[in-house]
Amino acid sequence: MADAASRLTALAEELLGVPLPVRLRAWDGSEAGPANGPVLIIRDRRALRRLLWKPGELGLARAWVAGEIDVEGDLYTVLDRLAGFLWERGEESRGLLETVRDPRVRAAAAALLRLAGPFPPPKPPLEEMRGRSGARHTRRRDKQAISHHYDVGNEFYAIVLGPSMVYSCAYWTEQGSLEDAQRDKLDLIARKLGLKEGDRLLDVGCGWGSMAIHAAREYGARVVGVTLSREQAAFARKRIAEEGLTDRIEIRVQDYRDVEDGPFDAISSIGMAEHVGTVKYREYADALYGLLKPGGRLLNHQISRRPEPDEEAYEVDAFIDAYVFPDGELAPMGRTLTTLEDAGFEVRDVEAIREHYALTLRRWVANLEGDWDRAVRLTSPGRARIWRLYMAASAVSFERNRIGVNQFLAVRTPGSGASGVALRPRVWSESGESLEPEESQEPQGR
């Protein structure tokens, strides 16, 4: 096993056909690769067994969650440099052993097997969600998936999200605090919805109650918030009571498909549609359309992915599905828009805020790293490592334009054609970003 790093680097480059972009430090203390920059640490050769058994993101993720690999230096730089292997060279990284045909490459793969040690690989870390059965996106399975992600503990989320307790992309009008940017996002949504005193708002996937509180306190709206997470609901109700808003806000542990007390003047769906699933997306759009009164508005805030050349071959990210958002699915922006229109909505505005999410995620990672020991105590070392990796990798994905996030303003326009959307000019920045005009910055409510 002498000089394992050099042997591993040579074998990896033989298999992949390109130089490794990061320096390696192996379990025997040896190092190899580029001298400058961050170091990818392989603490245990069990990590190699995971990679050979599950090539690509899932094998790497399991090794990361188990603490068998780590990073010394800037995590974002390592992820950015490895992105070409994980995302742009997907076939090679997914199937090192399954797809090789060249005898020279086969020999390198066999040597890597010997370096990895006895098979089979260790069991997956406990934090991986297993035991799912039945069809995706039934009420029962959706509730299990939501619980896996959101019922991690409100104290843990308070570390990551900060005082705003908003778990979606912030809106950065200037380089201020995360709390300011989240408040600005909530207010942007309220203004797009045209909220005013007495309006009835349905907040789908209401989280810890931040949008409901903002709409009731700043605009005088009456709000129904629904979530499948009991921990979120308990936290939201406590906050609402402390704000003195229990007469204006009702929080329910309820599936949006079971809401029957419409119509509503407006609906906000912020970071919730990603859980719906592509096969259920039309059902989602139809349900929200049916819950709005004529002239009512929907603000759908949703992460999107880039279209695939062959959409039928699209695969859900294995790491995200196993450890982060079970059964979550992303759709291209165009598909979302078309589905909303097919349901009867008039889509009046689409705002892309991809860069805003990259900055938001970097702030969340900084929050987690800044209180790491407590985050580990509140959950587990593996769970904290999952959140650090997924948020940092997501930031890189947004920065590289692999994924985006968009706000769709859609109206249930009545037969008269009167949408109620104000006539106001758009303002554009030099980078092509849509800005709000000066006169629309103040709240339109009370």
Characterize this entry briefly.
Keywords: Lipid metabolism, Methyltransferase, S-adenosyl-L-methionine, Transferase. With 446 residues, the chain is an alpha/beta fold.
CATH level 1 class label of the largest domain: Alpha Beta
State the distance separating the first and last CA atoms.
71 Å
Low-confidence stretches: 89-100, 438-446
- What structural class do helix, strand and pairing data support? alpha/beta
What fraction of the residues are assigned to beta strands by DSSP?
15-25%
CATH fold-level topology of the largest domain:
Rossmann fold
User: Roughly how much helix do the residues carry, as a percent range?
Assistant: 40-55%
What does the main sheet amount to? Answer: 7 strands, mixed
DSSP strand tally: 13
What is the CATH architecture term of the largest domain? 3-Layer(aba) Sandwich
Oligomer: single chain
Query: What is the fourth-level CATH superfamily of the largest domain?
Result: Vaccinia Virus protein VP39
Give the mean pLDDT.
87
Rounded Rg: 24 Å
The dominant shape is elongated
Please work out how many helical segments DSSP would assign: 18
Report strand order across the widest sheet.
Answer: 7-6-5-8-9-11-10
Total domain count: 2
Task: Present the secondary structure layout.
Elements: H1 4-16, E1 23-25, E2 31-32, E3 39-42, H2 46-53, H3 57-65, E4 69-72, H4 75-88, H5 90-94, H6 96-99, H7 103-116, H8 139-150, H9 154-161, H10 178-192, E5 200-204, H11 210-219, E6 222-227, H12 230-243, E7 249-253, E8 264-270, H13 281-291, E9 292-305, H14 318-324, H15 333-342, E10 346-352, H16 354-370, H17 372-378, H18 381-399, E11 403-411, E12 427-428, E13 434-435
Helix pairs in contact: 1-7, 2-3, 2-7, 4-18, 10-11, 13-15, 16-18, 17-18
